[in-house]
Amino acid sequence: MTFVTRLWQGKHSGRNESGEQAVSMTMSDNRQAKFDALVDIVHVDLYRYAHWRCRDRLLAEDLVQETLLRAWKNIGQLKSAQAAKAWVFMIFRREFARQLERGRLDLVDMALVGEYELPSTASGSGDLALREALARLDSKYSEPLVLQVLGGFSCSEIAGITNLSETAVMTRLFRARKQLRELLGDDSVSARDVSTVG
Amino acid sequence: MNCLRFRQLCLTDPRCADQEFDTHRAQCAECQAFRARLKAIDDDLKDTLEVDVPEDLRARIMLKQAIERERYRRHNLMALAASLLIIIGGGLLWGLPYLGDHREALSFQTAAVEYIHSRPELLTVEDLDAPADFNRMISDIGARMISTPAGIRVAEFCRVQDRTAAHWILDGEAGPVSVIYTRDVSPIARRRSHDRGGDYTTLLAPIGQGAVVLVGETGENLDAMIERIGSSVAW
């Protein structure tokens, strides 16, 4: 009789509930509480931004974890709740650049972006033409647009994140939307408009 | 505000909360339609970018941080102990915690075996995502994958004796082998094996910066399994 069989025959019954439960992080430490709150605020949008940058789910997950670990190590520097999200996105960009420089990221060559078929979103929503148009934008234009639309950042915050002047950010946003409209057709109807017709 | 200025603002900052912006939008039908088209594109764009977020992502973030926090705490404790030695001198040497005390590790080994016995159903599971989960876990615990060991059936994080631990089940020669790895235990100097008289065999060994407990069928070569895991991961 094997070890497995003996176990199955009821030597030990039931499941170890404590082993199944997610790790509980109930800390009274102020630093830990700050980090908990920070993760709650940023991890969803940060993951989605990382997914757009990396175009790979696993890479995005890894980078998000690394970013938030760095944020935790430097959380003493965070003085304002309003600046928290932008601060984390700034850390992410630095981490992304660092990993790219070290050759640790296997990304699609940006020069081939126009030919790259974007993975469809898990939810299945999103206009294909729009996704392709976004992929064809130069990243210096698409990034501020994504930060504004997805992250909800102001022009001032985007300037801080990307280390550009506010004027430069506004110029790039202007060109991004203008190019998007041209790629989609100036009088094109969006998916939402279609959904309300007839 | 004229139409040109309004449309410039639409293209750069469509959420503009300017009073003049709102007034012009209310008064100019063409600009209102222009803004509506741009907003629709922005909304579609947001839908496109809002991919599903992995359900366990937050948990993994917190776990990685907890592991790192423990590592810092132990590092700081050791630094503090070293400072005390320098300040006070060798006279306190015998009063300090004995690093390498095997009692803590043996207690952990017992708890790990109990945990494995409490999850008998896992020994007959083959999770197809286990190899990918294993790779991700290795990264989460601060190690580096060299190659995924063959025959991984289960890979999960768990709690043993209130310590965060990684739990893997691999195919052994005599049957499934359960492996419990943790960094949250005092280092041990050497391997300690124990054969439970035909019931099962277990091995406690140092690996990386922590300790590992293996449990397998009687006759299983657990030393070989340690070597197999050790050659797959750069700790």
Tags for this model:
heterodimer; A: 198 residues; 10 helices; 0% strand; disordered N terminus; B: 235 residues; alpha+beta; 6-stranded antiparallel sheet; two-stranded antiparallel ribbon; elongated
What does this structure look like?
- Chain A has 198 residues and is mainly alpha-helical.
- Chain A is built from 10 helices and no strands.
- In chain A, helix 3 runs antiparallel to helix 4 (57-73), helix 3 (30-54) packs across helix 5 and helix 5 packs parallel to helix 8 (155-162).
- The termini of chain A are far apart.
- Chain B is α+β, with helices and mostly antiparallel strands.
- In chain B, strands 2-3-4-7-6-5 form a 6-stranded antiparallel beta sheet, sandwiched between helices. A two-stranded antiparallel ribbon of chain B has the order 1-8.
- Chains A and B meet through helix 1, helix 2, helix 3, helix 4 and helix 6 of A and helix 1, helix 3, helix 4, helix 5 and helix 6 of B.
Annotate the secondary structure layout.
The complex is a heterodimer of chains A (198) and B (235).
Chain A: H1 3-11, H2 17-20, H3 30-54, H4 57-73, H5 84-101, H6 128-136, H7 139-149, H8 155-162, H9 166-184, H10 191-196
Chain B: H1 3-12, H2 19-27, H3 29-49, H4 57-88, H5 102-118, H6 130-140, E1 144-145, E2 152-160, E3 163-171, E4 176-182, E5 192-195, E6 201-207, E7 210-216, H7 222-232, E8 233-234
Antiparallel strand pairs in B: 1-8, 2-3, 3-4, 4-7, 5-6, 6-7
Helix pairs in contact in B: 1-3, 2-3
Compressed to H and E, one letter per element, the order of chain B equals HHHHHHEEEEEEEHE
Overall shape of chain A: it is globular
- Number of helical stretches of at least 4 residues of chain B: 7
Biggest interface pair, counts = A-B, 68 and 58 residues
Beta-strand portion of chain A reads under 5%
Q: Order of helices and strands of chain A, N to C?
A: HHHHHHHHHH
Uncertain regions of chain A: pLDDT < 50 for 5+ in a row? 1-28, 109-125, 188-198
Instruction: Please work out how many helical segments of chain A DSSP would assign.
Output: 10
| Main sheet specs of chain A | none
Order the strands across the largest sheet of chain B as they lie in space: 2-3-4-7-6-5
* Share of helix of chain A, binned: 55-70%
How much strand content do the residues of chain B show?
15-25%
Low-confidence parts of chain B: 90-100
Q: Which structural class matches the secondary elements of chain A?
A: mainly alpha
Quickly give the structural class of chain B. alpha+beta
